[in-house]
Amino acid sequence: MVSIILNKVLESREGIKISKNNVVIINKNDNVATAIKDIKEGEILVGDVVLEVKALQSIPFGHKVALKDIQKGEKVIKYGETIGIALTNIRAGEHVHTHNIEGRRGRSGSKEEKDL
């Protein structure tokens, strides 16, 4: 199920204008979203709804950002599927990439891959 990207200008509770969507969430079970534009540190994540998550660092276009806290060893979920395992604790709003997750491709043929 692909999210519909809304083209609205939204306003936060503080009255700060938030630009058009900056992330897409593919599946309601995902714990990461994909940046559909470069996101600046402190920017509020906006998908189909305004999320209660601010980017803790700049997130490049096409990269993942955590929607919730993900504990070390926990599955990273995108497309409703496990795409990797957190190598460290990842806070909501943090950049999620090869520095803090081990992707499924890195486990080729291992028992752990079958458990993902």
Q: Based on DSSP secondary structure assignment, what is the total number of beta strands? A: 11
Number of domains: 1
The termini sit apart by 21 Å
Largest sheet: 4 strands, antiparallel
- What is the overall silhouette? globular
Order of strands side by side in the largest beta sheet? Answer: 3-4-7-10
Question: How does this model look, in words?
Answer:
The protein has a single domain (19-115), classed as Archaeosine Trna-guanine Transglycosylase, Chain: A, domain 4. The chain is built from 1 helix and 11 strands, in the order E-E-E-E-E-E-E-E-E-E-E-H. With 116 residues, the chain is mainly β.
Summarize this structure as a short list of keywords or feature phrases.
116 residues, Archaeosine Trna-guanine Transglycosylase, Chain: A, domain 4, 1 helix, 11 strands, disordered N terminus
SSE map:
Layout: E1 10-11, E2 17-18, E3 23-24, E4 32-35, E5 44-46, E6 50-54, E7 64-66, E8 75-78, E9 81-86, E10 95-96, E11 101-103, H1 111-115
Antiparallel strand pairs: 1-2, 3-4, 4-7, 5-6, 7-10, 8-9, 9-11
Overview in brief:
By secondary structure, the protein is mostly beta strands. It has one helix at residues 111-115; strands spanning 10-11, 17-18, 23-24, 32-35, 44-46, 50-54, 64-66, 75-78, 81-86, 95-96, 101-103.
